[in-house]
Amino acid sequence: MEHVKLPELIIFDWAGTLVDFGCCAPLAAFCRAFENAGLPISDETARGPMGSHKRDHVREILHDPEVAERVRRQLGREPDEALVQAIYDDFAALLPAELPVYGAAIPGVVEALDWLRERRVRIGSTTGYTRAMMDVLEPVARASGVVTEVLVCADEVSQGRPAPWACFRIAERLGVYPMAGTIKIGDTPADMKEGRNAGMMCIGLSECGNEVGLGREALDALSAEERQGRIWKAEQRLLESGADVVLKSVAELPAWLEARGA
């Protein structure tokens, strides 16, 4: 087998990738914020734009034709920027209570990060969360062993995902190029599009993330057929969004890199 050297830099997402199996913290806060606004939404609707800047996330939900029609009919107003901001502000107020609940490392993540560090792979991270949100989450994650060298938040660049600016910022800080020799890892289509737009190889995560959308206990309660069906659908959505390969979780990353010939 041809020898393939390890990437110099891997950039990870956070919720549903490094911590928060099933990406549950933002789901809970989004559903409550929309309910508080008089617009209850399904988990599926809430999860649709996951991975993007959370204000963009609210805007995309409000522009969904079914939701927009309910805004006009039930609230007697347009799904305008004022409503986007009001729901986003409520979400931002609700999220901090959820983040510590789901802030522990996903199984296998700490070991995978240690494996990469031992091989001198640089570790960066981007997120749809703002810095204020990460100031709540990061200490909890660090206590469970999740540490990255550089973190760029959604409000620290001119445009969040799918724009590539956060990835470029990390590469610049760490002095790593070309981007074709780096990898982006995440659990949402927004992550894959961010990586693609940055010229990176993209690895999607199915079982642990937003696209399957179940916590560990709920996932384990499924029949083998139901579980495989949900994982398959998640894989397809990630591949359609630009993933080069899809793993079940970060725990599989070291073995996958070794199998490549690393």
Question: Can you give me a brief rundown of this structure?
Answer:
Helices cover 48% and strands 9% of the residues. The protein is of the alpha/beta class and 262 residues long. The protein has two domains: 9-23 and 101-259, HAD superfamily/HAD-like (Rossmann fold); 25-100, Putative phosphatase, domain 2 (DNA polymerase, domain 1, Orthogonal Bundle).
What is the CATH level 1 assignment of the largest domain? Alpha Beta
Approximately what portion of the residues adopt beta-strand conformation?
A: 5-15%
The name of the CATH architecture of the largest domain is 3-Layer(aba) Sandwich
Instruction: Give, in spatial order, the strands making up the sheet with the most strands.
Output: 3-2-1-4-5-6
Order of helices and strands: EHHHHHHEHEHEHEHHEH
Structure description:
This protein is an alpha/beta fold and 262 residues long. It has 2 domains: 174 residues, Rossmann fold (3-Layer(aba) Sandwich), CATH 3.40.50.1000; 76 residues, Putative phosphatase, domain 2 (DNA polymerase, domain 1), CATH 1.10.150. The radius of gyration is 18 Å and the shape is globular.
